[in-house]
Amino acid sequence: MFGEKEGARVITTFKDKSPIDQRSKRRVDNINILVSPHWEELSKENQDEFQRLIDTVQNDDYLVVNLYTAGELEENSRAVYKDRLSAKESHVFSPSFSSLYSKCSNALLLNAIKEKYTLVTDHAVPSILHQDEILIEVSAIGLNPIDWKAPAFNFGIPSLPWVFGRDLAGTVIKTSSSSSRLQNGDLVLVPSTDYRDIRKAAFQEYAVTTHYNAAKIPSTTSIHGGASIGVAYVAAVLALGVSFGLDFGLAQSVPGPDLRTILKAVDAEKIPEDIRSECLPSSEAGAERVQRGDWIAIWGASTTTGYIALQIAKLCGLKVICIADIARHGRRLHALGADILVDRHDTDRAVDIIRGVTGGQLRFAIDIVGRETATILEKALSQPNEGDNRPRSHLLGLTGSPKEKKAGIVYHTVPIKIFHESPQVGEGLVRWLEELLESEELIPPEVVIRDEGGLSGVNDALELLRSGEVSGKRIVVDLRKGDVKGTAAR
């Protein structure tokens, strides 16, 4: 057997009281675990011995865990595993699909707040833990503002070191038996909304996702276009379909799902408590759903989320007011069907124009910029008084809402986690996205491709994003030319 230096000892079965799966928080009954050593440190003899063990259990319900690679498990979970390993006890996790990749891979790690990402070359390839998961070889990464804001301002960081990245595109290289929709070799785009699961992050050569969170990239869309669109699409569609109740069946050319109807059929206890009221609104809010012909205003329409929200809203018959830097982005927004273009620079004038065009009856608005602009946009909304029979207005702030709330206005946040928490919602969104891209009814944003250095070029690309020089476009890092081996990304 393997010595202490060379890796962990082998296979155990837990048949005691039902433990808790640390990742899903569900209780489980039977757990088998195969603990992987650090492959490159094994002698040839021990590699052969370990491979025989793998072959023995390959078709059974075993989980492969590499205890020698940071990132596979949360810190507290790693400690528990190591303690139990030394005591020769059993270990906790609920595997339903076994996988092992002995090779190491490249990844970007954030080691400390306010630091740049560091390239490591000995990161473990993520393991598949559940039957609905698939493994992706990442070819392109779409950058988002949160990728530099989270380290700079210390939010959205589960622990350190950590792997980040929300948008990726690549090739399926391993599927589970439950996924008939996706096969090995499929080119897919993945919006990675489950940021607490390090296996699903984009800044690594291989990433795990679920089959209901991956969309096939059709021949009409480039891999860079696919990498640019994921999380922005999810945010835009959830804002319109869940928060405002837009029925995507109104998109006559490419009918989509009615998310409110889907969510009504989901067990409320399976919807996380912090987004439950947003996903299952009161009957009053249900009666106030946005309808074909209604006005909607989007502040920050030149952002990727705004760009997609505009297209989806127009497909469903809404009238759209776009607030942006019109000199820079007006032509593009007009080409996508914006009904009214309002320049953002004179905010008082912008509010006057919106109220004038809508006769003071605007009821739906999305702000994608921040709390300050959300507060300005709030002034453009109809504000019925208490006891008034008029329906309420609805304001969604993607990155912040007004501090003081006003009667007659419902304030929303995007329930982003429902995308990965609910297979029904996730699959509804990715299947519709496939159809929208195939039919070219949804046009991805213009991209700026960074194709030098692979992952090692991400820090420089994020500096470009942070500078604001790239406006109205998405920066996509192409990984296919490889990384600078053995060096920190600068």
UniProtKB/TrEMBL annotation:
PANTHER family: HYPOTHETICAL OXIDOREDUCTASE (EUROFUNG), ZINC-TYPE ALCOHOL DEHYDROGENASE-LIKE PROTEIN C2E1P3.01. This is Enoyl reductase (ER) domain-containing protein. Belongs to the zinc-containing alcohol dehydrogenase family. Transmembrane segments: none annotated. It comes from the Eukaryota. Residues 112-476 form the Enoyl reductase (ER) domain. Keywords: Oxidoreductase. GO terms for molecular function: oxidoreductase activity, acting on NAD(P)H.
